[in-house]
Amino acid sequence: MGVIPNSFVVVLPFLLPFCHFMSALSLNFTTDMIVIIGDSTSARLAASLAIHLGGCVVIKTQERCDFASYYGTPYSKKKLRQHIPKGLGPTSYGKVHRGCQDCFGCWSSTWNCQNNTLNLEYIGIEFALDVEYPTLEYDTTQESIIHNYLKHQNSVRYIYFNTGLHDAGIDNKAKVSNNHLLYRKNLEFTLQLLLDIFGPESVVWLTSTAIVSEKQPRKWRKVTSNKKVRLFNRISVDITKSMGVKSIDLFKISQQKRYRYLNQDGIHWGEPYEGFYSSVAKMIMSDSHL
After folding, report:
1. Rounded to two decimals, what is the model's pTM?
2. C-alpha count within 13 angstroms, C-beta hemisphere, residue 240
3. Is residue 1 one of the residues assigned to a domain?
Protein backbone atom coordinates (compact mmCIF):
# COMPACT_ATOMS: atom_id res chain seq x y z
CA MET A 1 0.00 0.00 0.00
CA GLY A 2 1.45 3.37 -1.01
CA VAL A 3 1.74 6.56 0.97
CA ILE A 4 -1.59 8.40 1.22
CA PRO A 5 -1.24 12.01 0.02
CA ASN A 6 -2.11 14.60 2.67
CA SER A 7 -4.84 15.82 0.32
CA PHE A 8 -6.90 12.72 1.20
CA VAL A 9 -6.40 12.81 4.96
CA VAL A 10 -9.72 12.93 6.83
CA VAL A 11 -9.45 15.29 9.79
CA LEU A 12 -10.89 13.56 12.86
CA PRO A 13 -13.39 15.59 14.92
CA PHE A 14 -11.14 15.86 18.00
CA LEU A 15 -8.43 17.43 15.82
CA LEU A 16 -10.68 20.17 14.41
CA PRO A 17 -9.87 22.78 17.13
CA PHE A 18 -6.14 22.29 16.41
CA CYS A 19 -6.79 22.61 12.66
CA HIS A 20 -8.68 25.85 13.18
CA PHE A 21 -5.81 27.19 15.33
CA MET A 22 -3.32 26.25 12.61
CA SER A 23 -5.61 27.87 10.07
CA ALA A 24 -5.46 31.19 11.91
CA LEU A 25 -1.67 31.01 12.08
CA SER A 26 -1.23 30.11 8.42
CA LEU A 27 -3.71 32.63 7.03
CA ASN A 28 -1.85 35.44 8.74
CA PHE A 29 1.47 34.68 7.09
CA THR A 30 0.69 33.54 3.57
CA THR A 31 1.21 35.91 0.65
CA ASP A 32 -1.20 34.39 -1.87
CA MET A 33 -4.40 32.37 -1.99
CA ILE A 34 -6.00 30.27 -4.72
CA VAL A 35 -9.69 29.44 -4.31
CA ILE A 36 -11.69 26.73 -6.11
CA ILE A 37 -15.49 26.88 -5.76
CA GLY A 38 -17.84 24.13 -6.88
CA ASP A 39 -19.24 20.65 -6.29
CA SER A 40 -17.50 17.28 -5.77
CA THR A 41 -15.80 17.46 -9.19
CA SER A 42 -14.21 20.73 -8.08
CA ALA A 43 -13.27 19.10 -4.77
CA ARG A 44 -11.27 16.45 -6.65
CA LEU A 45 -9.65 19.14 -8.74
CA ALA A 46 -8.62 21.03 -5.60
CA ALA A 47 -7.14 17.85 -4.08
CA SER A 48 -5.21 17.25 -7.30
CA LEU A 49 -3.88 20.80 -7.24
CA ALA A 50 -2.73 20.28 -3.64
CA ILE A 51 -0.77 17.22 -4.77
CA HIS A 52 0.91 19.09 -7.61
CA LEU A 53 1.75 22.16 -5.55
CA GLY A 54 3.66 19.95 -3.14
CA GLY A 55 4.16 20.23 0.59
CA CYS A 56 0.47 20.96 1.20
CA VAL A 57 -0.97 20.35 4.66
CA VAL A 58 -4.69 20.33 5.47
CA ILE A 59 -5.21 23.02 8.09
CA LYS A 60 -9.00 23.35 8.09
CA THR A 61 -11.95 21.25 6.97
CA GLN A 62 -15.74 21.47 7.05
CA GLU A 63 -18.25 18.86 8.11
CA ARG A 64 -21.24 18.16 5.85
CA CYS A 65 -23.81 19.62 8.26
CA ASP A 66 -21.71 22.32 9.87
CA PHE A 67 -21.06 25.36 7.70
CA ALA A 68 -20.97 27.62 10.77
CA SER A 69 -17.82 26.22 12.40
CA TYR A 70 -15.85 26.48 9.17
CA TYR A 71 -17.04 29.90 8.00
CA GLY A 72 -17.46 31.49 11.41
CA THR A 73 -21.04 32.81 11.11
CA PRO A 74 -23.97 31.04 12.83
CA TYR A 75 -26.94 29.71 10.89
CA SER A 76 -30.25 31.51 11.06
CA LYS A 77 -32.36 28.78 12.69
CA LYS A 78 -35.51 30.70 11.77
CA LYS A 79 -34.61 30.67 8.06
CA LEU A 80 -33.78 26.97 8.18
CA ARG A 81 -37.38 26.33 9.14
CA GLN A 82 -38.69 28.25 6.13
CA HIS A 83 -39.82 26.68 2.86
CA ILE A 84 -37.11 26.21 0.20
CA PRO A 85 -37.88 28.60 -2.70
CA LYS A 86 -38.82 26.86 -5.93
CA GLY A 87 -35.86 26.46 -8.26
CA LEU A 88 -33.19 26.66 -5.53
CA GLY A 89 -31.19 23.97 -3.78
CA PRO A 90 -31.05 21.87 -1.74
CA THR A 91 -33.17 19.20 -3.39
CA SER A 92 -32.24 15.94 -1.69
CA TYR A 93 -30.21 15.28 1.49
CA GLY A 94 -30.03 18.96 2.42
CA LYS A 95 -33.77 19.29 1.90
CA VAL A 96 -34.49 16.62 4.49
CA HIS A 97 -31.59 17.58 6.79
CA ARG A 98 -31.70 21.36 6.79
CA GLY A 99 -28.33 23.02 7.26
CA CYS A 100 -26.56 20.16 5.44
CA GLN A 101 -25.19 19.91 1.92
CA ASP A 102 -26.91 17.77 -0.70
CA CYS A 103 -23.51 16.71 -1.91
CA PHE A 104 -21.52 13.95 -0.22
CA GLY A 105 -17.89 14.95 -0.74
CA CYS A 106 -18.29 18.73 -1.13
CA TRP A 107 -16.86 19.66 2.26
CA SER A 108 -14.75 22.80 2.16
CA SER A 109 -11.05 22.47 2.97
CA THR A 110 -7.97 24.68 3.22
CA TRP A 111 -4.39 23.58 2.56
CA ASN A 112 -1.23 25.47 3.44
CA CYS A 113 1.38 24.92 0.73
CA GLN A 114 4.86 25.79 -0.46
CA ASN A 115 6.50 26.52 2.89
CA ASN A 116 3.69 28.71 4.17
CA THR A 117 3.72 31.03 1.14
CA LEU A 118 0.45 29.89 -0.43
CA ASN A 119 -3.00 28.83 0.74
CA LEU A 120 -5.27 26.71 -1.42
CA GLU A 121 -8.95 26.66 -0.47
CA TYR A 122 -11.79 24.57 -1.80
CA ILE A 123 -15.23 26.04 -1.09
CA GLY A 124 -18.04 23.53 -1.47
CA ILE A 125 -20.92 25.26 -3.26
CA GLU A 126 -23.10 22.92 -5.34
CA PHE A 127 -25.65 25.27 -6.87
CA ALA A 128 -25.64 28.67 -8.54
CA LEU A 129 -27.97 29.68 -5.71
CA ASP A 130 -29.24 27.72 -2.69
CA VAL A 131 -30.41 28.06 0.90
CA GLU A 132 -28.30 25.38 2.60
CA TYR A 133 -26.50 27.97 4.75
CA PRO A 134 -28.70 30.98 5.57
CA THR A 135 -27.37 33.40 8.15
CA LEU A 136 -28.95 36.27 10.07
CA GLU A 137 -27.94 38.82 7.43
CA TYR A 138 -28.20 36.72 4.26
CA ASP A 139 -30.74 34.21 2.92
CA THR A 140 -28.50 32.19 0.59
CA THR A 141 -25.36 30.11 0.98
CA GLN A 142 -23.63 32.14 -1.72
CA GLU A 143 -24.20 35.48 0.02
CA SER A 144 -23.33 34.06 3.45
CA ILE A 145 -20.01 32.61 2.25
CA ILE A 146 -18.94 35.34 -0.17
CA HIS A 147 -19.88 38.34 2.00
CA ASN A 148 -19.28 36.98 5.49
CA TYR A 149 -16.16 34.95 4.73
CA LEU A 150 -14.49 35.11 1.34
CA LYS A 151 -14.23 38.89 1.06
CA HIS A 152 -12.27 38.94 4.33
CA GLN A 153 -9.59 36.54 3.08
CA ASN A 154 -6.30 38.26 2.35
CA SER A 155 -4.37 38.07 -0.90
CA VAL A 156 -6.78 36.05 -3.06
CA ARG A 157 -4.97 35.71 -6.40
CA TYR A 158 -7.50 33.72 -8.41
CA ILE A 159 -10.93 32.16 -7.91
CA TYR A 160 -11.83 29.19 -10.13
CA PHE A 161 -15.60 28.76 -10.08
CA ASN A 162 -18.13 26.21 -11.35
CA THR A 163 -21.72 25.22 -10.77
CA GLY A 164 -24.07 23.46 -13.17
CA LEU A 165 -24.33 19.71 -12.67
CA HIS A 166 -26.51 20.03 -9.56
CA ASP A 167 -28.45 22.92 -11.09
CA ALA A 168 -29.19 20.88 -14.21
CA GLY A 169 -31.00 18.30 -12.12
CA ILE A 170 -33.30 20.67 -10.25
CA ASP A 171 -36.16 20.51 -12.75
CA ASN A 172 -36.36 16.71 -12.59
CA LYS A 173 -35.86 16.43 -8.85
CA ALA A 174 -37.93 19.45 -7.79
CA LYS A 175 -40.46 19.55 -10.65
CA VAL A 176 -39.32 22.95 -11.94
CA SER A 177 -39.83 23.68 -15.65
CA ASN A 178 -37.59 26.04 -17.65
CA ASN A 179 -34.86 25.55 -15.08
CA HIS A 180 -32.23 26.90 -17.49
CA LEU A 181 -33.82 30.36 -17.17
CA LEU A 182 -33.52 30.18 -13.39
CA TYR A 183 -29.93 29.01 -13.74
CA ARG A 184 -29.10 32.08 -15.84
CA LYS A 185 -30.65 34.40 -13.26
CA ASN A 186 -29.04 32.64 -10.29
CA LEU A 187 -25.58 32.44 -11.85
CA GLU A 188 -25.65 36.10 -12.84
CA PHE A 189 -26.50 36.97 -9.24
CA THR A 190 -23.74 34.89 -7.66
CA LEU A 191 -21.10 35.81 -10.21
CA GLN A 192 -21.85 39.48 -9.59
CA LEU A 193 -21.29 38.91 -5.85
CA LEU A 194 -17.77 37.71 -6.66
CA LEU A 195 -17.03 40.42 -9.20
CA ASP A 196 -18.12 43.21 -6.86
CA ILE A 197 -15.35 42.13 -4.50
CA PHE A 198 -12.58 40.66 -6.65
CA GLY A 199 -13.08 41.94 -10.20
CA PRO A 200 -13.13 39.95 -13.45
CA GLU A 201 -9.36 39.69 -13.66
CA SER A 202 -9.33 37.44 -10.56
CA VAL A 203 -12.22 35.10 -11.48
CA VAL A 204 -12.00 32.17 -13.92
CA TRP A 205 -15.08 30.15 -14.90
CA LEU A 206 -14.84 26.36 -15.29
CA THR A 207 -17.52 24.75 -17.46
CA SER A 208 -19.15 21.57 -16.17
CA THR A 209 -17.61 18.28 -17.25
CA ALA A 210 -19.31 15.79 -19.57
CA ILE A 211 -21.41 12.87 -18.37
CA VAL A 212 -20.95 9.22 -19.32
CA SER A 213 -24.58 8.12 -19.04
CA GLU A 214 -23.99 4.36 -19.26
CA LYS A 215 -21.81 4.55 -16.14
CA GLN A 216 -24.36 6.46 -14.09
CA PRO A 217 -26.35 4.54 -11.47
CA ARG A 218 -29.76 3.85 -12.99
CA LYS A 219 -31.62 6.09 -10.53
CA TRP A 220 -29.58 9.14 -11.63
CA ARG A 221 -29.76 8.69 -15.39
CA LYS A 222 -32.86 10.84 -15.77
CA VAL A 223 -31.62 13.58 -13.45
CA THR A 224 -29.40 15.19 -16.05
CA SER A 225 -27.78 14.52 -19.42
CA ASN A 226 -25.07 15.84 -21.70
CA LYS A 227 -27.77 17.70 -23.64
CA LYS A 228 -28.70 19.57 -20.46
CA VAL A 229 -25.07 20.10 -19.44
CA ARG A 230 -24.25 21.57 -22.87
CA LEU A 231 -27.19 23.96 -22.53
CA PHE A 232 -26.11 25.08 -19.09
CA ASN A 233 -22.51 25.46 -20.26
CA ARG A 234 -23.61 27.66 -23.16
CA ILE A 235 -25.58 29.83 -20.75
CA SER A 236 -22.68 30.09 -18.29
CA VAL A 237 -20.11 30.99 -20.96
CA ASP A 238 -22.47 33.59 -22.39
CA ILE A 239 -22.84 35.15 -18.92
CA THR A 240 -19.16 35.05 -18.00
CA LYS A 241 -18.10 36.43 -21.37
CA SER A 242 -20.54 39.34 -21.02
CA MET A 243 -19.07 40.08 -17.58
CA GLY A 244 -15.47 39.96 -18.77
CA VAL A 245 -14.62 36.66 -17.07
CA LYS A 246 -12.50 34.15 -18.96
CA SER A 247 -13.40 30.47 -18.97
CA ILE A 248 -11.76 27.05 -19.26
CA ASP A 249 -13.75 24.44 -21.18
CA LEU A 250 -13.64 21.36 -18.95
CA PHE A 251 -16.51 19.76 -20.88
CA LYS A 252 -14.36 19.60 -24.01
CA ILE A 253 -11.32 18.36 -22.11
CA SER A 254 -13.30 15.62 -20.35
CA GLN A 255 -14.57 14.29 -23.69
CA GLN A 256 -11.07 13.37 -24.85
CA LYS A 257 -10.83 9.60 -25.43
CA ARG A 258 -7.75 9.25 -23.24
CA TYR A 259 -9.83 10.11 -20.14
CA ARG A 260 -12.97 8.11 -20.86
CA TYR A 261 -11.80 4.94 -19.09
CA LEU A 262 -11.23 6.95 -15.89
CA ASN A 263 -14.88 7.87 -15.43
CA GLN A 264 -16.17 6.05 -12.36
CA ASP A 265 -19.87 6.79 -12.04
CA GLY A 266 -20.89 8.92 -15.00
CA ILE A 267 -19.85 12.16 -13.24
CA HIS A 268 -16.41 11.82 -11.63
CA TRP A 269 -13.33 11.45 -13.83
CA GLY A 270 -11.16 9.25 -11.66
CA GLU A 271 -9.24 10.08 -8.51
CA PRO A 272 -7.48 13.43 -7.92
CA TYR A 273 -4.06 11.98 -8.73
CA GLU A 274 -5.19 10.50 -12.07
CA GLY A 275 -5.09 11.85 -15.62
CA PHE A 276 -8.06 14.22 -16.00
CA TYR A 277 -7.87 16.15 -12.71
CA SER A 278 -4.09 16.08 -12.85
CA SER A 279 -4.09 17.66 -16.32
CA VAL A 280 -6.52 20.39 -15.28
CA ALA A 281 -4.55 21.06 -12.08
CA LYS A 282 -1.41 21.63 -14.15
CA MET A 283 -3.39 23.95 -16.41
CA ILE A 284 -4.49 25.98 -13.40
CA MET A 285 -0.93 26.14 -12.08
CA SER A 286 0.19 27.56 -15.40
CA ASP A 287 -2.74 29.97 -15.53
CA SER A 288 -2.03 31.16 -11.96
CA HIS A 289 1.75 31.36 -12.56
CA LEU A 290 2.43 28.95 -9.70
Report:
1. 0.88
2. 24
3. no
